[in-house]
Amino acid sequence: MEFVVKSAKPATLKTATLIATVFEEGRLGAAAQAIDLATGGAIAQAFKRGDLTGKPGQVLVLHNPANLKAERLLLVGLGKDEEIEPRQWRKVASAIGGALRNLGGSDATVVLQDVQVKGRDLYATTRMLVETLADGHYVFDRFKSKKADPRALKKVTLVCDKAQSGDAERAAVQGAAIASGMALTRDLGNMPPNVCQPTYMAEQARQLAKGYKGLKVEVLDENKLRELGAGAFLAVAQGSDQPPRMVVLQYNGGPKGAKPHVLVGKGITFDTGGISIKPAANMDEMKYDMCGAASVLGTFRAVLDMQLPINLVGLLACAENMPSGHATRPGDIVTTMSGQTVEILNTDAEGRLVLCDTLTYAERFKPESVIDIATLTGACIVALGSNTSGLMGNDQALADALLDAGTRADDRAWQLPLFEEYQEQLDSPFADIANIGGPKAGTITAACFLSRFTKSYRWAHLDIAGTAWISGGKEKGATGRPVPLLTQYLLDQVR
Predict the structure, then answer these.
(1) Contact criterion met (CB below 8 Å) for 291 and 242
(2) Spans in the chain with pLDDT lower than 50
(3) Angle at which helices 165-190 and 483-494 cross, to 10°
(4) Which residues are identified as catalytic?
(5) Separation of alpha carbons 373 and 94, rounded Å
(6) Is the overall model pTM greater than 0.85, yes or no?
(7) Going along 375-416, which residue ranges are E strands?
(8) Element (H, E) at 266
């Protein structure tokens, strides 16, 4: 979907669908008033007839409106207040997208002058609209014999005042890039696990590099991982016929010699739990256990689309966790790349095992910051549900930057404590550390485990177990989160 910005009188624009916003009780902003005047009071008459109330997200289509060059006029309610909440604006944007999907025409025009969102300037308001419309255009029908009908809508024009056109254009470019990254993340997450295996993830990284200049990809196979001493990483993969892969992406768009930011993604392409096998119910959703790695690839696509002047490294820790005669057993002890030994008490706590060696590998890049992204613990869903990602780390300034980025990107996280007392739950009588800390504070003790391997740099951990996909039902599927949060954080670092 293409997004363009124009500064013009809405009534003069030739378009399949002109979209204007209205308030409850028949109140109209300046732009809607001008449209109403041009149409001889068509909007006022709709209110008078009771066809339109202006409630948030309500839509009404007027066909062949008089004196407009638009084929139809789509009216969308904003509610009572002239300043609406960000969440309400996203719902309104979703309503616009839903209405457009049911209309003909290859283009639409959205009038933005009457929209004011609390705490958001025109740039943020426009970017939220663009991301929502583009993400709502997403379809995954690769494995259906009957494909979805092609979407008619190809182009959206955003109308604003001339003085703000620069901000709107920047928002359109960046919002479209973020939506593109989310689409890649969703595609990878939604792929079946018999297709999306560690080698497939590596190939997708290579394909991304072919499409963009400046991206280098290196793939470390099991032999290289063995040379590096990645005993924890290899322990996870040894029960599967699918070989593990650590995928290294490097983009040097920033100043030469500037320290890179590193994104580390958990890429368990299917997680049975291993010998500590999971219950059968909903086990199909364990194909989403690679969404951390998918979100790193999606963020790279967004960064590459925008050609951000930043140095960025991505590390994808890809393996499949299966039970077999070769699988790791509870009670096994492995040696990590860092030299620390781990007693594996539960083979279903495998994500932290591939991540700990990958986080050690991250040291060689002398990073400015390291953020790992992982569908790590069911405990995070218990604590925060499916709306908010969990955040922990060893640097408060980094945590604050991510929390702020999440708020502004409408992709929020919430910080949990990482107090030293929790570390005691990981004590083992036989090894340096156990891979689980018991039933209490599971999200925190998982992060405590990772923190043992991140002492040489600024580090944050995002637990996206609740936010990476929608579980069950017709709406089941990957969400593309936390690509907006991560991209906003990187945008902030450039500024």
Answers:
(1) no
(2) none
(3) 140
(4) 278, 352
(5) 27
(6) yes
(7) 389-393, 413-415
(8) strand 261-271
